[in-house]
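To close the chapter, one final illustration. This time we ask the reader to focus less on the individual chains and more on the assembly as a whole: which components sit near each other, and how the overall shape emerges from the parts.
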Amino acid sequence: DTAVSQTPKYLVTQMGNDKSIKCEQNLGHDTMYWYKQDSKKFLKIMFSYNNKELIINETVPNRFSPKSPDKAHLNLHINSLELGDSAVYFCASSQDVEEQFFGPGTRLTVL
Amino acid sequence: AQSVTQPDIHITVSEGASLELRCNYSYGATPYLFWYVQSPGQGLQLLLKYFSGDTLVQGIKGFEAEFKRSQSSFNLRKPSVHWSDAAEYFCAVGANTGGFKTIFGAGTRLFVKA
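The assembled structure is written out below.
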């Protein structure tokens, strides 16, 4: 059973398009996260949701909009994609301050 | 604000040799400390964590780490490296600041030579 799953695994798109990445966790965790990992492997938190409520919103362009329909799902919608958005996006979940469980990542390439 | 420094961008060790990956953190209170490993094309997996108590913590795959408050360090060690340990290793510090947030270091890439 996959604990944290993301779709799609790869996403190639043109500049200016709008795209979404979906994330689901079956661990019963209350908190979910989105991270961006750049080409140098630097991992930076973007958003955190706890029980469908946004609790962390780092300095991220407002073209990025997370949505949590329930505590098992956290989706990421990106408007007007730019070249600099190319990265690997990881979803993760945790229960309080315990370890985070990461999804396999979505590699986004903007052409 | 909390931060994490991993001074080594990459390290190469021979299979069977010992390993130590360095990590220094900056945080005002007692931190939550983690080491994660990322194999190519994969997500991150927790190796071990320190919250309190014994400063030497054991993790999976034969890894251990020692918390040294005086040096603000949390170095990762393994006595004998296997070729399958080649991966990217991330040290991280977590804090409750209006929501639990984990700050990751830049990572250390481990190469293992036969």
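The mean pLDDT of chain B is 92. The CA atoms of residues 37 and 43 of chain B lie 8 Å apart. With these observations in hand, you are ready for the problems at the end of the chapter.
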